[in-house]
Amino acid sequence: MILITRRVATAGLLATGAFARPQDAPRRAVSIGACLDVMLLDLADRDQIVAVTHFARDSDVSTIAARARDLPFTHETVEEVMALKPDLVLASKRTALQTRTTLKAFGVRVVEFPVSESVAASLDQVRQVAALLGHAARGEALVGRIERAVAKAEPKPGERPLKALVYQSNGLVAGKGTLVGEMLERCGFENVAGRYGLKKWGNVSLEQLLADPPEVLLAGEAWAGAPTWADRTIRHPALQSLEPRTFRASFHQRLLYCGGPVLIDTAAALRKARREAQAWAARRP
């Protein structure tokens, strides 16, 4: 009886359109932005996704590499995208301007998105992408998941924020006014990028870091393939000399730029780093 009841209820919901995709929703959606790949995969029906970017399969830069292995991809060229006959292209404003302009000139519907610089802006993008795909309710559900993940990572009232620095390949640092900078503060850290003279994004030399180390170094990881010249900074043996004063935690570069569903992973990584740093500090003499 329970099974029959559930079937009848589901049929009723489908009849009223509660689960149905709107008829005017796009049927052939393409992403030409690495951060938009993640949102497309989480918000669209699988049969709506025609292609993502080639970055989606790269575990060094993408949080969805395993899930995207069977998805078609492009290198974001006009020729590749046009051949797919999309009725919606989600484009990052970091994608080549010529590609976006040419696609529009051919009559392709291109919706452009800037890089989110705050959690609120990122949640707005989730809602916008969900609405474009015809899945507004799915977007609200994802927003709720992100908000719960961030809230779970927030420190307890009165807990002292730990002075931290995000430090990636080539000494790349995220300062205030960036999405990851806000996430640091929301998750119990004080972003000390400013004391190295940085505002938003910039580079901190190894010498600067050794002369004035933070409490917590949220360090990137070397690329999975052959080590790059830029990796020499985060691989440098001199960083080991910071260990008596600084706790080094892992913060992967794939968490550095994207919002949306990636914030769930970012919040979890920062929560883990803060807990480990607190345990390390408690053990120090």
How would you sum up this structure, described in words?
It contains 10 helices and 11 strands. With 285 residues, the chain is an alpha/beta fold. The strands form 3 sheets. Strands 3-2-1-4-5 form a 5-stranded parallel sheet, sandwiched between helices. Strands 8-6-10-11 form a 4-stranded parallel sheet, with helices on one face. α4 links the parallel β4 and β5.
Strand order of the largest sheet: 3-2-1-4-5
The proportion of strand residues reads 15-25%
Largest sheet report: 5 strands, parallel
Q: What ranges have pLDDT less than 50 throughout 5 or more consecutive residues? A: 1-19
What is the global morphology? elongated
The percentage helix is 25-40%
Task: For this entry, give a set of tags.
Rossmann fold; single chain; disordered N terminus; alpha/beta; four-stranded parallel beta sheet; 11 strands; five-stranded parallel beta sheet; 2 domains; 285 residues
Quick description:
By secondary structure, the chain is α/β, with parallel strands linked by helices. The protein folds into 2 domains: 24-114, Rossmann fold, CATH 3.40.50.1980; 151-283, Rossmann fold (3-Layer(aba) Sandwich), CATH 3.40.50. It contains 10 helices and 11 strands.
